Amino acid sequence: MRILIVEDEVTLNKTIAEGLQEFGYQTDSSESFKDAEYYIGIRNYDLVLSDWMLPDGDGVDLINVIKQKSPRTSAVIISAKDDKESEIKALRAGADDYIKKPFDFDVLVARLEARLRFGGTNVIKIDDLIIDPDEEKITYLGQEIELKGKPFEVLTHLARHSDQIVSKEQLLDAIWEEPELVTPNVIEVAINQIRQKMDKPLNISTIETVRRRGYRFCFPKKA
Question: Which of 112, 119, 142, 212 has the most CB within a 10 Å radius?
């Protein structure tokens, strides 16, 4: 699962990121409202953990940006404001949880885990095709499909953006940890794996190639 950390205190940001990575989470870090908006625009997050007070904006205002992009993404506010009114304001603005500073890291992780159980990116169901990102599992008409790793992530990303054409660059940036270190042909390899391991055996088509622009999720559509 991927978490975006929005915290302008560099040491705390780094501490949270390293701690969550030890628990197996993928993390991105931002120190400003503007950078957070950028990350939210290009990547899908299971959860965004944001400080309230940012140098160029309000973490509570960021909740609206998060929920507009993906209503299933959990938004958790961390803040030094310990008054009841601030907590109520954040929750009414759409925050899924409110954690007061200073916090115990183990408690933070437990509360994030709780949010991810009930929120975050969830099962994608389109007709008879079911994609479960948490279990890395795909089923079609009750039959489980063996598709793992990056091809699974590419399929999932395209399915979540089924009304959009997604470029190779966008896929690289959304899925690969260091997109600048890989070549765009890894996308072609992943797409080919999807077509060979899933589309062809099931006689369906899930990914359409849009010349010079990228790819689009096109299921349901008979091959």
Answer: 112
CATH code matching the domain that covers 124-217, chosen among 2.160.10.10, 3.20.20.80, 1.10.10.10, 3.20.80.10: 1.10.10.10
Q: Where are the domains of the chain?
A: 2-118, 124-217
> What are the two backbone dihedrals, phi and then psi, of residue 195, each rounded to the nearest 5 degrees?
-70, -35
Residues of the chain with pLDDT under 70: 118-122, 163, 221-223
Q: What pLDDT digit, counting tens, does each position of 85-132 carry? A: 999 999 999 999 999 999 999 999 999 988 887 654 467 888 889 998
Mean pLDDT (the chain) is: 89
DSSP SS3 for 174: helix
Which letter does DSSP use for residue 81 in this model?
-
- What sign does the CA torsion over 196, 148, 130, 176 have? negative
Side-chain-side CA neighbours of 197 within 13 Å: the count stands at 17
Task: Please state whether the predicted TM-score (pTM) of the whole model is above 0.70.
Answer: no
* Cβ pair 54, 74 in contact under 8 A: no
CATH T-level topology, domain 2-118: Rossmann fold (3.40.50)
The C-alpha atoms of residue 134 and residue 209 are separated, in whole angstroms, by 27
C-alpha–C-alpha distance, residues 144 and 139, integer Å:
4
pLDDT at 181: 81
d(CA 96, CA 74): 6
Nearest CA-CA partner of 1 in 185, 192, 180, 156? 156
